[in-house]
Automatic annotation (TrEMBL):
Keyword tags: GTP-binding, Ligase, Manganese, Metal-binding, Nucleotide-binding, RNA repair
Residues reported in the UniProt entry to bind GMP: 226-230, 337-338, 370-373, 394-397
BP term (GO), one: RNA repair
Domain of life: Bacteria
Annotated protein name in UniProt: 3'-phosphate/5'-hydroxy nucleic acid ligase
Cofactor(s) needed by this chain: Mn(2+)
InterPro entries: RtcB, RtcB-like, RtcB-like_sf
Record-annotated active site: 394 (gmp-histidine intermediate)
Entry binding sites for Mn(2+) 2: 255, 337
This enzyme's EC code(s): 6.5.1.8
Lineage of source species: Bacteria, Pseudomonadati, Bacteroidota, Sphingobacteriia, Sphingobacteriales
Organism of provenance: Arcticibacter tournemirensis
Amino acid sequence: MDNSIKIKDLTRIGYTDNKARSLVSTIFNRHFKHISSEEKLKILVQIKESPELFLQDEGVGKIARLFVVGENKIKPRSFTLSSNAAPLRIYGANHVDAQAIKQMELALTLPISIQGALMPDAHGGYGLPIGAVLATDNALIPYGIGMDIGCRMRLSILDAGESYLQRFDFQLKQSLRSSTHFGMDGGLEFRQEHEVLDNPLFKSLPLLRRLHGKAVRQLGTSGSGNHFVEFGEITLHEGNSLGLPANKYVALLSHSGSRGLGAAIAKEYTAIAMNNCKLPRQAQQLAWLNMDSSAGAEYWAAMNLAGEYARACHDQIHYNVLKPLGLEALATVENHHNFAWKDTLSDGREVIIHRKGATPAHRDELGIIPGSMTAPAYLVKGLGTESSLYSAAHGAGRAMSRRKAKDSMTVSGMKQLLSNAGVTLIGGNVDENPQAYKDIGKVMRSQSTLVAPEGVFYPKFVRMSKD
């Protein structure tokens, strides 16, 4: 028998607030899972009508407190911006556009902001700019993480000789075509299995329960835009952290995130934050959730699930592409770059570090920083620089908007650029053409105090989304 409470039933009895619905789901699944849905609804009506009678109840007291505040709403709080902005460090300032700096300076006037940094690939975005790092006091900014939660890189260094790319070019291209899927709709033609789909969070929160089917369908796929899966050649430096001999290796590199799951989580909790954290108009997208609130705890859990799902997608992408080729990974490196982490600064302060398009770079932490479809990617080791909040760039960064990139490049012109670089593109659009990006060499030189390169990867066969 299905004892679950449906959203339409909660709406009918006056539970229209997302936070209230989430609390009901969490608490009733834990404490009232053996009673019928009709009985659950009766209890919920009583809580709404006489909340003061339930305030001390260990199980439903949190729900009752919502109604004491008034009419099933979390009482919104209004905040003013500080006249003294938190400190900001900009790396490669001559590569960073004015819009990104302006957006970051605004974020640093939030009363929760402690410290900020802009990476040399930074450019304007929504909420925080792309390439921004922000440390906050016990607060999460959903738009400070972005729509593609857990967007990440993964590099597999393979047990194949230097000549493999030339000898098996047909098989490599065929595997990229048949074992990947890009874009907003559809999925792979063969079923995917991964333990992330059994995570109990998918059953504990109403939003995640509704998204489970989409997560199943999109597992092992990639998004559109600048997401890619590509084969290439990596040269590892002497004394690299992977313990592999300095040499040239075939490698598989991928870039994508948490798909529709992460986007839906971002939309839901951004709306909750903006409804309950009232800021001046120019800063509305920077509304936050307190980590001690139930909404903050839910978002933290959902964000981490989206991160695990993004990791699972890369697991499946690399497995699916490499299996037909019979290749094995000698080493794997991966990292998130749209995420938030709990961390501690050198003065002992505990903070939440948001990285929206930035690579974690604690001391000796490995990461991957890509260029473009014709420019190299770098395997790097973090140097643990606190002024950058232990972070580095997440790529070359856009030099042109998508519209400008389309207007400034023809399809035949892009084909010539690819041919000159010896790169085969499967899919892709002119708005991702190499000239739309900053010079990755200059970006790397601008962050020499943040990361140390341990290898250089050159793409050869690139698979991307095509409109």
